[in-house]
Structure formats: C-alpha cells, structure tokens
Amino acid sequence: MNLRPDAVVVGAGIVGAACALRLAERGLRVSVLEQAESPAAGSTARSVAGVRAQFATRTNILLSQRSIAEYAALPEAGYCASGYLLLFSAVQWTAHQAALALQRSLGVPVRALSPLEAQRITPFDPEGIAGCSFCPTDGSVDPHGITFAYLRGAARRGAELHTATPLTAVTRSGGVWRLHTPRGTLEAPLLVNAAGAWSGEVAALAGLDVPVIPARRMVFATGPLGRHLGYPMTFDLTSGVYLRSEGERLILGRADVADSGWREGMNWDWLEPTLEAALARFPWLEQATLDRRASWWGYYEVTPDHAPILGRMPGADGWINACGFSGHGVMHAAAVGHVIAQEALGEPASVNIDALRYERFGQAQAGLHDLQL
C-alpha cells in the first residue's frame, strides 16, 4: 500500500472510479479506498442504470449529456439508447415547458408528445395526463462494467485500489489528510469524498457536516413475459411510478420518501402502494407476475435539495466532495470525474458546478429543483 499518495478517493463505486481515473490521467498518485469486498458493491450495483438528459437545470443537463456521450463511446458501458418517456399532469406540463426549451437549446433531441402519441411508445391510461416528453438518446447502461473499466484505466496509470478497507478515523495535520484504516494510515494532501450513501459518515469522521443520508429504494421485477416488450423507461410524474423493459421482464418502482436511514432488505409492504399506482397508469400489468427473487433494493444518497454536492469543502483544505447525487450518480459520473480532476488541479471546469457547491446550503435554494426520478 502506498501510504503517501497525492490523492485518496474514498469509495469505489462509479463516481469514485471516474474520479480516480481522471486524477491518475493527470499524473497524480491515486489510492482508492473501498469498505466493501469489491468495487461497485453499493448503490452502483443496485442502480436501475438509467441515463437521461431530461433535466430542468443547465448544470444537470450538461453533466448528463457529457456522461452519456462518454458511455456511448465506451464498449464496457453497454449503453442502450432506449429512451425516456415522461408523463405530466396539466400543471406539471405547463411548468415543464421552460425545461423543454432549455434542453433543446443545449442540443438535447427531446420531443413533446400528446398522450395519444406517447401511448404508441408505452401503453398507458391517459387519465390526468396533459403532455409527455421523449428523448431517444436517454436510456440505460451497465454501471458495473463502467466502474471496472474506469478502475482498470486508473490502475494502468498507477492508481491503487484497496477493497475491504474501511476508514476508522480522518484527521488533518501538516497540510495532509491522515486516513486511518485497519491496513495502515495513508497521508495525502487531497481527499475526494465519493462514498455514496456513506459520504456523510465519512465526512463526520473528519468533523465535517456533509448533509448526505441514505434512502432505501425498492425495485420490483416481473417474471419473464415470453418476449421483449421494448418499453423505454416510462415515468408517471403524477404518481411517481416508473417502469421499463429489462430483457423479457419489466422492472418498476416508486420512491417511498419516508424510507430513509440505514434500513436493509426488501420492504415488501411497499409493494402494494407501488402496484396500486402502477396498475392505475398501466392496467395491462395485471397480466404480469411478480418475481420476488429477481427484485432488489438499494440506497440513494440524498441531500436536502436532492442535488449533488460537488467541489471543494469550505474551511477544509484539500477536501473535495463528489457525493449526494440523489439517484443521479450513474447519469453524471463520467462528467463528474473530469470536473473533480479539474477542481483538484485548479483548472476551469468543463461544466460550471457553482450551483452544486456546498456553500449553497447557506443560501437561498433558488434554481436547484429538478425532476426527482
């Protein structure tokens, strides 16, 4: 173990892997610490794996656009441009017009559809739906494949990966961070907090308050349907329920906003509220069966405004946050890797992240709200 790297990345999920690669590319000696037995074992492995550029803020759109472009060029990413179909109520549709205009101005090939046109993509009950949007370059990826590709790239440039290496204490002295682990103590002038749902706890070890908490999410899977229906990610903004094809199955879910904290395992009590909303919008689901063994759960890493925390931590020299993505980590990881490397080296950012910096929590939260899918 290199006990004196230039930078330590805490977390070997997709975001940490992207940061490690881009830092190593710049010639920094990088160590990656992961508490689990293998990389991509936390939220990355349990993601629904969707990627979309249909956001309402410029920063999020650009982070997604650049990430999707990188995934499309990476064979290990398994990028599938299956699209995202969003369904809006009348009030939501009126409010969404500004987002559609912004997306188009940035080159996102999004289309506005009537409910009738949208039903040709995914059948649904149009009751209460006033308008829909569809982007054909949104879709899905293989987060596991991306993470390991990034880590292999970082290793070729000298980065070290240490799994089963939890942090036990973090201190700052003499211009370096001291990271204490059961395998030894590392000293580095730069620490990147990319620990996902554990990022708040990692910060607390250093006496810092980074407002990231875990939120459990259920993903329910149907049994094999005998054929690939080819439905894109379809999200009903009126109820919060989503579904998409996954091979010959469908996966579906709906966020339980009360399910926060370190709760493990499937919450089967949430199945009924999810199915109630799903069947109301997609009544043809009655013909499908549920496969409990194929269903899974994972953590979102949630912040107070459901936006990530990126960039240097005020009052903590050498500490950079790359966490709190609130379900959008896979969507933004590729671009975030570049931005964090630029931040570390004092270079202009390829995407302006000022709206996502920690300092916003002491300011008015204007302009940060976006679709929570």
TrEMBL record:
CC terms in the record's Gene Ontology section: cytoplasm
EC class name: oxidoreductase
Domain of life: Bacteria
Keyword line: Oxidoreductase
Listed GO MF terms: sarcosine oxidase activity
Keyword Oxidoreductase: yes
Documented EC number(s): 1.5.3.1
Every FAD dependent oxidoreductase domain range: 6-342
InterPro entries: FAD-dep_OxRdtase, FAD/NAD-bd_sf
Protein name per the record: Sarcosine oxidase subunit beta
Lineage: Bacteria, Thermotogati, Deinococcota, Deinococci, Deinococcales
